[in-house]
Every structure is written in C-alpha cells, then in structure tokens.
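Quarterly update from the structural biology core.
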Amino acid sequence: MKIIGVGCGPGMLTEQAIREISRAAIIFGSDRAIELAKSYIPGDCVVKTIDDFKNLNKISEDSIILSTGDPMLAGLGYLSGEVVPGISSLQVATARLHIPVSRVSVVVAHGKGHKKGMQDTVEEVKRGKIVFLLADPKFEVRELYTQLALLSPPVRIALCENLGYPEEHILIRDIQSPPEPTEALYSLVIGDF
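Predicted structure, tokenized:
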C-alpha cells in the first residue's frame, strides 16, 4: 500500500505523487483528495471514496490511499506502507507568512482533541514557540483566545483559510481583536511573529 499526499490545494501534487497516481490500479481517498488528484488518475483505475477511516488497514497492498496535504501532518501516515509526502498546509502557511518552520510547533485539535489542543497551544506560546494549529469547525476558538489574552508575551494570530485554493485568505490580527474563522478549512498561526 502507498499513502500519497496530494497537497493542501490544487496544483500542489509533487512529481513523485503524480507518477504514483498515474500508475495506480486502485485508489482510495476522501472526496477532496480524489478531486485534487483526479486529472492524474488513469481512466481504468478503480476509485473508491473512503467512508470508514477505521478499516483502512484492511485495504489490499497494491492500493493507493490519497491523503490531503501531507500524510505525516495529521494525515494517514500512521498506516503501514510507503509514504509519499505532499505539500502541507503548514508549509504553505509558513511560506506565506515568511516564518521559518524551525520556529513552529504543530498542534492538532481535530475531533476529540480540542481540549488538549487548546492546552498544548497555550503551553507552546508560553515557551516562545509559534504554534501552527490544525483545528476543525467545532473547535472553540473564542475559548482559546480568552486563554491566550491572559499571556504576557505579544500574541498575534494569522487565520489561514482555504490554503492553496483560489479563495485562499489570510488575516493577521493581535489577540485584542482576533480573527474568527468563517470557512471549514482553516488553520491558525499563533505567537510572536
């Protein structure tokens, strides 16, 4: 099995990913991942939308699984098999904001990890790190902002919505007037940058 990162938006597939996808016989992926790769999927390839992420380890070894962004950044890289990296939202956000990745701490707050994600974000900002926070639409950003407002170091927030897509939008504000997400596909960059 190969787990292939398709990038965080259109046109972000690597040459290696394109080669692997164009030779595939069986591809699994989310609707979004399939859409990002569709122009390279062979016509005779069997394409299946992933409905149940819990049973992916039962997929045949000759299959390709598409992962949005990079499989190793909150993606499907935990599966056994070869991983082909993709261009992640982290890479795009740090490039757009001119922040060296070495200054960044990644925090994932998807699904059940909201409370821990919030705690980790506050702790990392206290340590002087810039946090790249991957969140979902149910994450309580206002609660996070309340906790961050109590910190003494300067805190700025970049709301990064639809990174890599034509409707990409980045809004930078300070903690006194923090940006509110309006899109389901967003991340936050938080800290002194």
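The domain at 2-87 is CATH 3.40.1010.10 (Cobalt-precorrin-4 Transmethylase; domain 1).
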